[in-house]
């Protein structure tokens, strides 16, 4: 498969244009409603599938199938990101009208980091074929661990990047609208919103460790790996606002995702023995998603299942000093009775906190979320 330079340029131009359109469409801080999220989800999915049709038409059905398989893998694994982002927002008590701003820059950073990972992965696989088996074994291990580990947790004391930031970056004790930085007492200081952004970015980097090798399992073409990943990630913000409040309903979905990781891991391990046709990969990925989602809808979560999910959430959102309070300033304060999607709420603190405790301040909440999930 030969990809001319102008194809790369065209893809990057489309991505930049769509990011600018999204930024202009959400200039003002506001709570994203389900209807708006649904419309944007349809836009991003149409864009992603439309590009797949272009790949199919220009490079043939094999390349088109590989792109679609990679797109489905990344889109399905992004569900984990959605739930963890909801836990992070609850932990930091992020005002709902600021969530989209964090996710916008989070997605932009994710595109940059994933491009770097994909470029590095392509070079490594091209020079050291045996790394393919390491990727396969890692995906197999991750899938098994995911199936055994039902709850997703965020751990405030396991994020070294945020711990370092807490030590070296002065931070205010409350949100200041949609600003990441402000000037206070003559010096430039960060707001807690910057800590949230760093948490989102580091979380996505952790998740990229298995999603990118999974796409390399269905195609070794860097162009297809990057584009399938990019167009799936572009819709992550809309997916969050669409699904964050309903994640508990899809309690079997993680088993479907685990099965996908195991199967693509096996595919990588058997790559030199048997070439799995792309149509079979698509059928397996689609089948795992349909069965797990269908089972979740046909058999709603019982009291025990819901209780287990709640316990997993509480483990991740409880810091050593309890849940932070919410404090905002100016026109960004609260969202009133807007029917926005629900998100996991941090549990009540075990001990009452002083009234002047900093709200969602990275310097006051013992460290910040690391992530346990997808086998980590």
From TrEMBL:
Which Pfam family, an example, fits this chain? TerC
Ranges of Low complexity compositional bias? 302-324
Q: Where in the cell is it found?
A: Membrane
Keywords noted in UniProt: Membrane, Transmembrane, Transmembrane helix
* Region named Disordered: 302-376
Presence of keyword Calcium: no
Keyword Lipoprotein attached: no
Spans traversing the lipid bilayer: 6-25, 37-59, 71-90, 102-124, 130-148, 193-217, 223-243, 252-270, 276-298
Q: How does it sit in the membrane?
A: Multi-pass membrane protein
* InterPro entries assigned to the protein according to its UniProt record, in alphabetical order: Integral_membrane_TerC (IPR005496), Integral_membrane_TerC_rswitch (IPR022369)
Coarse class of the primary localization is membrane
Output the Gene Ontology cellular-component terms.
membrane
Bias regions of kind Pro residues — which residues? 341-352
Q: Which family does it belong to?
A: Belongs to the TerC family.
Identify this protein by name: Tellurium resistance protein TerC
């Amino acid at each position: 498969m030969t990809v001319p330079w102008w194809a790369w340029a065209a893809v990057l131009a489309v991505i930049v244009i769509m990011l600018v359109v999204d930024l202009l469409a959400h200039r003002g801080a506001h709570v994203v409603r389900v209807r708006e999220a649904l419309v944007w989800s349809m836009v991003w999915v149409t864009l992603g599938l439309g590009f797949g049709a272009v790949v199919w038409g220009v490079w043939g059905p094999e390349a088109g199938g590989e792109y679609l398989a990679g797109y489905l893998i990344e889109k399905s694994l992004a569900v984990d990101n959605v739930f963890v982002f909801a836990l992070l927002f609850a932990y930091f008590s992020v005002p709902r009208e600021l969530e989209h701003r964090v996710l916008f820059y989070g997605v932009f950073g994710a595109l940059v980091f994933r491009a770097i990972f994909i470029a590095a992965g392509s070079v490594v696989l091209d020079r050291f074929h045996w790394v393919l088996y390491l990727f396969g074994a890692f995906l197999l291990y991750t899938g098994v661990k995911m199936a055994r580990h039902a709850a997703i947790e965020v751990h405030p004391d396991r994020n070294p990047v945020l711990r370092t930031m807490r030590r070296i970056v002065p931070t205010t004790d409350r949100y200041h609208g949609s600003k990441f930085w402000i000037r206070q007492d003559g010096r430039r200081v960060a707001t807690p919103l910057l800590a949230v952004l760093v948490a989102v970015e580091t979380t996505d980097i952790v998740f990229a460790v298995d999603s990118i090798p999974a796409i390399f399992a269905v195609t070794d073409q860097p162009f297809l790996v990057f584009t399938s990943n990019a167009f799936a990630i572009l819709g992550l913000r809309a997916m969050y606002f669409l699904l964050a409040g309903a994640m508990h309903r899809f309690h079997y979905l993680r088993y479907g995702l685990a099965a996908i990781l195991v199967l693509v891991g096996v595919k990588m391990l058997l790559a030199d023995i048997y070439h799995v046709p792309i149509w079979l990969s698509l059928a397996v990925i689609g089948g795992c998603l349909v069965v797990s989602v269908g089972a979740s809808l046909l058999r709603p979560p019982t009291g025990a299942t819901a209780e287990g999910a709640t316990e997993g959430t509480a483990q991740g959102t409880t810091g050593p000093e309890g849940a932070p309070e919410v404090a905002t300033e100016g026109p960004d304060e609260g969202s009133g009775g807007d029917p926005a999607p629900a998100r996991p709420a941090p549990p009540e603190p075990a001990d009452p906190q002083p009234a002047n405790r900093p709200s969602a301040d990275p310097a006051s909440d013992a460290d910040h979320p690391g992530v346990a999930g997808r086998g980590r």
